[in-house]
Every structure is written in structure tokens, then in C-alpha cells.
Design goal:
Layout (H helix, E strand, L loop, with lengths): L45 E5 L11 H9 L2 E4 L2 H11 L6 E4 L5 H13 L3 E5 L12 H10 L2 E5 L4 H9 L6 E6 L4 H10 L6 E6 L4 H12 L4 E6 L7 E6 H9 L7 E5 L14 H9 L4 H12 L3 H10 L2
Parallel strand pairs: 1-4, 1-5, 2-3, 2-4, 6-7
Antiparallel strand pairs: 7-10, 8-9, 8-10
Helix pairs in contact: 3-4, 7-8, 9-10
């Protein structure tokens, strides 16, 4: 799911589905006049990853609207959501609509690629935001690239970028971490990997797990790390709460949090470089792993921001 809160299956009511969680292939707003449908194409076609609104349908682009009405095939994460979207946009989908989601990607990808190979234009849409980013679509792009087929995109709304921009935290360097693992041990391990991350981090989280997530962030990063919780972005009840991890944990404990959520966490503060002697052990550890001394010195010096020459001399003096 692009960076988009609407991909949070855990944060929305379950909808009825057919066997194995799959939806039947569906015709949505089929054109009454068959002649209005796109003609059969010959030669290689293309795949278009089309971003959909993350909340406010007014954010739908003119290109998205045009493609939904002209594409030979629309591959949709949820055909019912697509139906509601085209109704709100006043679009008639003339092409074939195929359900394509995480439960059938493995089996449907080859079929979709064959349609593109035969000359069809295939538009891929997910529930909200950009396909393939924390959403279905990666397998399709991977397969198309391997097959030498054309893939392009119609960019648009993104919960990741919207949350980052509204957070009040540094935006020059950032990373997207998606959902943290649900299990406490796996979540702690992932956060440990991020303990030295200096870039601003963006996460998705379900509302009923936000409190436990914030508690885990406090344990790993401390109560004073800056953070923003972005809720219901672009919707009527949009809310951005900014403060420290400790402050937002108290807020979550005292409120019933609802809606689709993106969490933006400030990166680790830069540490003072210290003296070359402080980092001799780190160099020796790399050398013990089989790395040449000069390479080990260069790697550590760059990481901790000390002089390579002085660190090399400190290592030799310690021997």
C-alpha cells in the first residue's frame, strides 16, 4: 500500500468477501455501447500505476479519471472500493475490471502480464495512494521489468509524504518503515535496528495498536524523541498531534484513537565524535572479522566522523 493510511486493513470494518478472501472479477460501470470500449490492441501494451485519493476524492487527478475511463483493464485491490470511487468521480469504466490483491498476486500476475504483452493498457489501482508502496503492485512491476514491458505511473496522493510534510520534523532525509511487527519481540528487534537511524522515520499503524507502539518507541528511543501522529489525513476529521514520544503516549492512553494513522518519528540526534582512542575497539572488531586494517579504519572513521590518519595511529599505538 503507497504510503497511504487507507491501506490499513486493521483500521477499517471488515467487508464481506468470497472464498479465500478473493473477490470475483467484476464489471464496474460497463459502457452501454460496446463500440465505446477501447479497440483490441496489437503489440506490447503498458502498465500504469495510478495513485488514488487517500481520503478526499477531490484529490483525484485528471489523468487518473481519464485512465479509469479508457484503459483496457483496471486491476483493483478491492473492486467494491473502486466501484465507490468511480461513482463519486462520475467515471464510466469501459474496460475489464480484475481483482488483484495480496491474496492472489502470485496467481494473477502472469495473467495480467500476458494481457499487457498482447497490447493492452492495464491500470493498477489500490484502495488509496500509490500501488506497490505498502500495497499490491510490486509483483506486477517486478514481472513487467523482467519481461521488458513498459511500466509508468500517474502520481498522486501519498500518506507518507503528506504525514512527513505536516509533521514539523526534518524532511531533507527520511525513510519509510511501513507497519512494525505485531509481536513484541519482533517489534523490539526491528526498533533496535533503527536505534541509530538519523533520518526521519515514517510508519503506519492501526489505531488499536498505537498505544503499544508508542510505548515500544519510548522504551527504545526515550520519552523525549520528537514525534507526530497523523490521523485521517485529507479527511473531514484530519488531526496531527505533535510532541514528544512521552507526551503522545499519555495522549493515546487518555483517548480512544480512531481512523487511519501515520506516525512520523524524528531521527537519532548526532553524537559527538569522541577521540580516535574511543574507537580502536570497533576497528579491531572489524579486523577480527577478516577486514583489512586500512579498510576497517576507513569504515569506522567515516561512521564516527574522526580523522582516518589519527584513528590509524591510535590503533597502531594500542597494539
Amino acid at each position: 500500500m503507497d504510503p497511504n493510511p487507507s491501506t490499513f486493513a486493521d483500521s477499517r470494518p471488515a467487508e464481506p468477501s468470497v472464498a479465500a478472501g478473493e473477490e470475483p472479477e467484476t464489471e464496474v460501470h460497463v459502457a452501454a455501447d460496446p463500440a465505446a470500449a477501447a479497440p483490441v490492441a496489437t503489440g506490447p501494451g503498458r502498465i500504469v500505476l495510478a495513485a488514488t485519493p487517500i481520503g478526499n476524492t477531490g484529490d483525484a487527478s485528471a489523468r487518473l479519471i481519464e485512465l479509469l475511463g479508457t484503459a483496457d483493464i483496471v486491476a483493483a485491490e478491492d473492486t467494491r472500493r473502486l466501484h465507490r470511487l468511480v461513482q463519486s468521480l462520475g467515471v464510466t469504466v469501459a474496460g475489464r475490471v480484475i481483482s488483484y490483491h495480496e491474496h492472489n498476486e502470485a496467481t494473477k500476475t502472469a495473467e495480467l502480464l500476458e494481457h499487457v504483452r498482447s497490447g493492452k493498457t492495464l491500470v493498477m489501482v489500490t484502495d488509496a495512494g500509490m500501488p506497490s508502496v505498502s500495497d499490491p503492485g510490486f509483483r506486477l512491476v517486478e514481472g513487467a521489468v523482467a519481461a521488458g514491458l513498459t511500466v509508468t505511473a500517474v502520481p498522486g496522493p501519498s500518506a507518507v509524504l503528506t504525514a512527513l510534510a505536516l509533521s514539523g520534523l526534518p524532511t531533507d532525509r527520511f525513510c519509510f518503515e511501513g507497519f512494525l511487527p505485531r509481536k513484541a519481540g519482533e517489534r523490539a528487534s526491528r526498533l533496535a535496528d533503527l536505534s541509530a537511524e538519523r533520518r526521519t522515520m515514517v510508519f503506519f499503524e492501526a489505531p488499536h495498536r498505537l498505544e503499544s507502539m508508542l510505548r515500544a518507541l519510548r522504551e527504545r528511543f526515550g520519552a523525549e524523541r520528537r514525534i507526530a501522529v497523523c490521523r485521517e489525513l485529507t479527511k473531514t476529521y484530519e488531526e496531527v498531534i505533535r510532541g514528544t514520544v512521552g507526551e503522545l503516549l499519555l495522549w493515546a492512553e487518555g483517548n480512544e484513537v480512531r481512523g487511519e494513522i501515520a506516525v512520523v518519528l524524528g531521527g537519532a540526534p548526532e553524537q559527538a565524535p569522541g577521540t580516535p582512542e574511543d574507537h580502536v575497539a570497533a576497528v579491531n572488531e572489524l579486523v577480527a572479522q577478516g577486514i583489512r586494517l586500512k579498510e576497517a579504519v576507513a569504515a569506522v572513521a567515516e561512521d564516527v566522523r574522526v580523522s582516518k590518519r589519527e584513528l590509524y595511529s591510535a590503533v597502531l599505538a594500542a597494539r
